[in-house]
Amino acid sequence: MAEKICTLLGLGKSVNEFITALVRPQIKVGREYVEKSQNKEQAEFAVEAISKTCYERLFRWLVERLNKTMDKSKGASFIGILDIAG
Questions:
Q1: Domains of the chain: which residue ranges?
Q2: CA-based torsion, 39, 40, 43, 48: positive or negative
Q3: What is the 3-state composition of the chain as percent helix, strand, coil, each rounded to the nearest 5?
Q4: What's residue 49's pLDDT?
Q5: Helices 40-72 and 15-23: crossing angle, nearest 10°?
Q6: What pLDDT digit, counting tens, does each position of 42-86 carry?
């Protein structure tokens, strides 16, 4: 599953780096970076945050694309979509 996600996000062959970033993210302490261990719930929260951000950006892109397309056509000038799930 991680390979498919990395492909869709355009991360190429850095699957191990992606997984490591979720499980053991690096934080900056002073001038150096230190790995921080995360438990299962924290890693799941990170995955959820990435998922929500991807959904938000895709949704915004889709609405903008629809608005541009409708702007070129006659009669309709705007589409507004309410996202009640997010």
A1: 2-72
A2: negative
A3: 60, 10, 35
A4: 92
A5: 120
A6: 999 988 998 899 889 998 898 888 778 776 666 655 556 655 565
Crossing angle of helices 15-23/2-9, nearest 10°?
A: 100
Q: pTM of the prediction?
A: 0.63
Please give the CATH number for the structural domain made up of 2-72. 1.20.120.720
| DSSP 8-state class, residue 12 | T
Q: Which helix (H) or strand (E) holds 42?
A: helix 40-72
- For residues 43 and 45, give the distance between their C-alpha atoms in angstroms, rounded to a whole number: 5
Residue 43, CB-side half-sphere exposure with 13 Å CA sphere: 12
